[in-house]
Amino acid sequence: MQWLDGISEIVAKYDVFILDQYGVLHNGVEAFDAAITCFNRLAEKKPILILSNTSRRAVSVAPKLAHLGFDSDKLIGSVTGGEEAWRWLQSNKHLRKCSLITHRFAEQAFDKRKDFESIFYGFPSSQLDVVPISQADFLLVEGSGTIMYSPEVSEKTEIDFIDTGDPNCNEVLSYLKQGKDENLLLLCTNPDLISCGAEGRICHMGGQIAKMYEEMGGKVLYFGKPEKACFETCIQLAKQRVPNTSSKPLRIAHVGDSLYHDILGAQRSGIDSIFITSGIHRKELAQSSKASSDMSQLESVCCRFGIRPTYILQHFRW
């Protein structure tokens, strides 16, 4: 592991950079200090892909970044957990009916079919619908704020799991136990366990719910980091869109703030990684910085996860 002052120190070593969004570039509401400048300067020198665990489709990424001030026109592509799941469902059309845990935006939930950023977009109700578990082919967890057993918004059940992460949440346990009784596969379109929102708010994500189902003995299929498949999609996109006159493979590095998702996924995929310490691990690593020269905290956390990033950077900066 090597501390960096800024990403400019290693730009020349790589042909392509894969960036995480949340925790690296922004918190969902506003861009981080120095991140816009760093992104735009990096994009002038090297091709950039976004790899995000958002449950929304890849087309959602560039407009979001542009809204926050990033020059997203320079992206060569985006891969998301939602996009990977959408593609998988397109190839597995025998799975047509699901019971759903989604975000707290369920008032719009079944405008989802008209929302081109949604996993439901492009599927008529005959091919992808929300039903009671007794009628479902699978469980779909794309959020942690609302449970739906029907496409009728008036019948939704709002839950506080996103705020509490309570493993004893009755509504979530009922959903999972019913699914397990029916031996249903659970699709998780965002494997994140937690995320950091605006003003330091901690959000408990659908990945925690999927882990609970696994602990019950249920089968889960994850889309997104740290799964190798999404990194392979990025690598293939890079090969298609980045000219490579060398006989050697493209040199690719991934920038992320989650040891378990970003850094582990990069490690599994055989690519280098740049770990941003000011993201979801910031409290654990409060005393770790290049200036402190104290690597003990960082070594301890990395050892716990069995992961070693190639480089360490406190914030995404040039």
Can you offer a commentary on this structure?
By secondary structure, the chain is of the alpha/beta class. The protein has 2 domains: 2-83 and 226-313, Rossmann fold (3-Layer(aba) Sandwich); 93-222, Rossmann fold. The chain has 9 helices and 16 strands. The protein has helices at 35-45, 61-68, 81-90, 161-164, 170-181, 206-215, 228-241, 259-269, 296-305; strands spanning 2-3, 16-19, 48-52, 75-80, 97-102, 129-130, 138-141, 146-148, 157-158, 185-188, 194-196, 202-204, 220-222, 252-256, 272-276, 311-313. The strands form 3 sheets. Strands 1-16-15-14-2-3-4 form a 7-stranded parallel beta sheet. The longest helix is centred in the C-terminal third of the chain and has 14 residues, at 228-241. The radius of gyration is 20 Å and the shape is globular. The mean pLDDT is 91.
Q: Which SSEs are present, and which pair or pack?
A:
Elements: E1 2-3, E2 16-19, H1 35-45, E3 48-52, H2 61-68, E4 75-80, H3 81-90, E5 97-102, E6 129-130, E7 138-141, E8 146-148, E9 157-158, H4 161-164, H5 170-181, E10 185-188, E11 194-196, E12 202-204, H6 206-215, E13 220-222, H7 228-241, E14 252-256, H8 259-269, E15 272-276, H9 296-305, E16 311-313
Parallel strand pairs: 1-16, 2-3, 2-14, 3-4, 5-6, 5-7, 7-10, 10-13, 14-15, 15-16
Antiparallel strand pairs: 5-8, 8-9, 11-12
